[in-house]
Backbone:
């Protein structure tokens, strides 16, 4: 993970998942319909990292060659660039976007080294990292991902890991159960 905060805070969960993955096979790092979300609230900073197969967001994973595919990639990149339209936060928290980073081979980025696996060479992932600054972080008790599910109906499940004032937890979210509790 890029941000130091998430790398340090989520290390125990990542290690546990790696252990489970080793014992029970793949946890579906690249499973269509499934995305991963890491969230950390530290002081007045809320960081969110979303990793999803491109299929969930744009509807395909190959390099965009047709005009329609290229237009869809541009549309999704623009949507992902506006996190406050995809993630509903309590208004009382007063959160604003301070940083957005989007990465994907579909956006012209080179694939990550770990995406060169012989079984995954035809897959593309999209990574979104958001850093929000909240004037009243105590009001961030939950985040509603319903707008994200509505915008991207190909995303059926989000596996979440959260670090907040109440500690660390994880769980699965869906369109029917889209509230991420801190």
Residues:
């Amino acid at each position: 993970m890029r941000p130091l905060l998430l790398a340090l805070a989520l290390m125990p969960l990542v290690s546990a998942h790696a252990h489970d993955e080793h014992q029970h096979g793949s946890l579906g790092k690249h499973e269509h319909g499934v995305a991963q979300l890491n969230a950390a609230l530290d002081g007045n900073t809320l960081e969110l990292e979303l990793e999803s197969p491109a299929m969930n967001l744009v509807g395909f994973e190959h390099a965009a060659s047709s005009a329609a595919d290229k237009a869809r990639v541009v549309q999704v990149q623009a949507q992902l660039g506006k996190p406050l339209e995809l993630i509903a936060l309590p208004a009382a928290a007063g959160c604003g976007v301070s940083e957005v980073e989007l990465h994907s081979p579909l956006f012209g980025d080179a694939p990550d080294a770990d995406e060169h696996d012989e079984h995954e060479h035809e897959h593309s992932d999209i990574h979104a990292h958001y850093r929000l600054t909240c004037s009243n972080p105590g009001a961030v008790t939950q985040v509603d991902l319903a707008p994200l599910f509505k915008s991207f109906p190909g995303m059926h499940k989000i596996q979440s890991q959260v670090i907040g004032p109440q500690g660390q937890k994880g769980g699965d979210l869906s369109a029917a159960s889209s509230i991420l509790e801190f």
Remarks:
- Confidence is low (pLDDT under 50) at residues 1-11, 13-28, 115-121.
- The two ends are 20 Å apart (CA to CA).
- Residues 40 and 58 are 26 Å apart (CA to CA).
